[in-house]
Amino acid sequence: MGRSVVTNRPVPAGSVVLTAQSTGCAAVLLDSVVAAGRHCSICLTSRPNLVPCNVFNCRASLCVECQANTTHRLIHSFECGPTSQESELVRSLVRLMLCEKTSNGSTSTTPSDPSNPSTPPPTHPIPPQKIKSFHNVSDLTLLEDHLAVFDQGRKEAFGDAALRALQLANMNCLPEAIERWTRVAAAFESNEFGISGVNQWVGESALSLGSESVGNGLFVHGAYVNHSCNPNSHFVVHCKPGALPTLVIRTTRSLNTDQHVFISYTSLYTTMEQRKNSLYDMYRFECQCERCTSVVSDEEGMPHLINAAMTGLLCTSSTCGMGLLENIEEDIEGSDEQETSATASQGPQWCCTECLTMQTITQHMKSHERLGLAVSELQMAVVHNCQGEECRTQVEELKAAQAQAAVHLHSFHTLHHAARVMLVGMAWLNTNGQDVKQISNRASIALEPLKRSQTMQEYMLWISILETLVLVPESTQDPSLSLENMKHSIKVLQCHYGKEMGTSFMNNTMLLQGRPGNKHAHDAPLRKRPRKRQKRGKKAWRK
Fold it and tell me: 417 phi and psi, to 5 degrees?
């Protein structure tokens, strides 16, 4: 397993096991987010009072709080100008280079414009030894870069990014420098953390249960925490106005002494094969977690069946209706040429695992293609802020494609899951979170298959978010049941996001839908505090 984080005592669920500030201030916005200009380039928060940089060719924007912070203005100066238009990797490398150079004692580290070499770089008004956030750049030596196992194309891409960053940082492009920063580029991509905002039910984020991807960051000490497809912990990068992004890893269930801490590096609602391929492509290791091994160890067990259903094509025979089609080589010896040519003209045939009949999958593939296209087109429509009739047309097409695919694709299929979650988001967007009944119905439709497809505890967070949306006004439901559901949802949200953010998620979601928010929601799952009666003095009582 290599390096890891292990508990040295029993740890309750919801406990913080690790916090870390971004290494070398290398927490940057995604390219698309920079272009949109709605997030601060330093603290990565979405703010209404952002001020675009007035330097020519600079795409960065800063919030008022970061503008007032001397260190944050210094960090912005590292990428001010043409550097702000570079990729995430190049911008991250430039920050790391110049933070390292500044922490080593240089007082003139801001790169000049490469297109105008005569422009001298400005000096910084504060001594570098006072910038404590720069000192952790030395932690880069602790990272594993896995450069040797990347293919040649990726190695060249890392080398190009390193060379470009050295040029932008006005540093010597010697072979040893290029080699070193090429390894840092590989290490960054192998160890970066995605940065997302939670409870952001606006635009594209609504299609992902309120999760908005805004950037990537390097947190060296957080990279020690290993991956599992059934994680026992969850990470959140806290982005607050005027503060550098901070990684917080929190347990989602109780851990015993000497138990390993695990988080997830990849999307969890995918097949074992897809997760393994994604992890190896990005992080260069093959997952052997308990969830993956349970799929392989027992081909008749539920984990294996659910894994197959995530890409499963349904048997359409009227006498079966429950089996999945499997691609096998059929023994056609003894059949005549006419039957063979007729079969080939009908398209590929797969075998049902239950009734063992061979079936043509042409219609299955058409349904798969239509649903995949509908999911993609609706996402693009929301990204481009399409509204009104155009967006309604995309939603109706998604519903029609989903109805057609219901005959051919298993209900656990990844496309079905994506469509159900997207329709929850569209119900929110189309009504601005006000149509409680529509949102609740859509969340309920998405919730049940997710619960049934969970083999361990891998979908706890998503289930809790959907349960929060499903909660209906107490007048139409048993109040005690509603309270118990609320307590459970708050517990899970707090374990993933923390006490403050988890409670905020619950209250904001309920208030936006016109429901009575729980003013003391953070106390509900713990205990009820008796109200203290205020003692009145004699004069006050008489008055």
Answer: -60, -45
DSSP-assigned beta bridge partners for residue 39: 46
DSSP track, 121-187? PPPPSS-GGG-GGGGGGGGGGGS---GGGS-HHHHHHHHHHHHHHHHHTT----HHHHHHHHHHHHH
Instruction: Specify the pTM.
Output: 0.83
More confident residue, 456 or 500: 456
The predicted pLDDT at position 523 comes to 36
Q: Where are the domains of the chain?
A: 16-263, 266-312, 313-329+346-360, 410-512
Task: Note the pLDDT tens digit of each residue in 394-418.
Answer: 999 999 999 999 999 999 999 999 9
Query: 3-state SS of 283-318?
Result: HCCCCCCHHHHHHHHCCCCHHHHHHHHCCCEECCCC
Say if CB 39 and CB 258 are below 8 A apart.
no
Q: Is the pLDDT of residue 282 over 80?
A: yes
Q: How many CB atoms lie within 10 A of CB 381?
A: 18
Pull the structure tokens for residue 261: 């801490």
The Cα 371–Cα 368 span in angstroms is 5
Residue 388 pLDDT class (50, 70, 90 cuts): low
**How far from chain centre, in Å, is Cα 169?**
31
Q: Which residues pair with 510 in a beta bridge?
A: none
Distance CA 528, CA 514 (A): 25
Which H, E and C letters describe 461-510, residue by residue?
HHHHHHHHHHCCCHHHCCHHHHHHHHHHHHHHHHHHHCHHHHHHHHHHHH
State the burial class of residue 195 (Cβ atoms within 10 Å of its Cβ: 0-12, 13-18, 19+): buried
